[in-house]
Amino acid sequence: MSGTAMAAKAHKPKPAAPAVRDSDHDGMPDRWEKANGLNARRNDARADRDRDGLRNLAEYRAGTSARTADTDHDGMPDGWEVAHRLRPTRGDAGGDLDGDGLSNRHEYDLGDDPREADSDHDGVSDGDEDSDDDGADDRDELDAGEDPRDPDQDDDGIPDGEDNAGTVTAYDAATGALTVGSVDGMTVTVTVTEDTEIRWYRRSAACPAPATAGDLTPGRTVHRLDVDGDDGEDGDDHERGDDHEGGDDALTAEKISLSCG
């Protein structure tokens, strides 16, 4: 075979890749439509099968599922994530794009904009807003595991911002024994361990971050005290300082929220 013939054979063009089949010409390939439970023979590009605020064609372009409202299962619908330029195919619920102290998921739950630190432009950062007018900032309530849309989380007739579990009366760092006294004279003694989560409530520059066992000083106000080892969910029975003196049935502190100031 001559050199010219060999060169021609070597440069023989490859066959063209088969065209992607789109029977209904709606911009979505048949294979993708079938995989997402759509009708490949009917133009349904503008429909929203999973009702997540994102039309089927937009789901295809974004790489999300038309059958699942929250493709990445991070608690935020695909449509909301796309509208706010988040990543609907990668869990980013814990991010804080605007630095307002609220996670993306919390911004969604509260109806705020994850890209605007002051969504309503009232001069107050979203994290510092008080959505339920209970005297406590949304961010502080979320940090304390409370609902910023419920002004009286424990239904005791006292706004959350004025609520507290009591005051530290004694703390033994060697044994971890913490005693908290309430305003009505009752006490609860719990054990603080290395797994106990200690945080500030109503943070300010006056309080070091993060809070530690070293801040369990006599006179410190305890906003919330959650314990393990009782029948109540998250130790709610002890938030108001019910009388427990420790012993064999001593409770272990799961979360302690200390008032700053």
Describe the structure in brief.
The chain is of the alpha/beta class and about 260 residues long. The protein has helices at about 5-10, 30-35, 55-60, 80-85, 105-110, 140-145, and strands at about 165-170, 175-180, 185-190, 195-200, 220-230, 250-260.
Task: Tell me about this structure.
It is built from 6 helices and 6 strands. It is α/β, with parallel strands linked by helices and 261 residues long. The protein has 3 domains: 30-83, no CATH class; 104-143, no CATH class; 163-259, no CATH class. A 5-stranded mixed barrel has the order 1-2-3-6-5. Strand 2 (177-181) and strand 3 (187-191) form a beta hairpin. The relative contact order is 0.09.
N-to-C order of helices and strands: HHHHHHEEEEEE
Cα-atom radius of gyration: 28 Å
**Can you summarize the main beta sheet?**
5 strands, mixed, barrel
Kindly report the average pLDDT value: 85
Share of helix among residues? 10-25%
Structural class: alpha/beta
Count of DSSP H/I helices = 6
Could you tell me how far the N terminus lies from the C terminus, measured between alpha carbons in angstroms?
93 Å
Proportion of residues in extended strands: 5-15%
Could you tell me the number of beta strands?
6
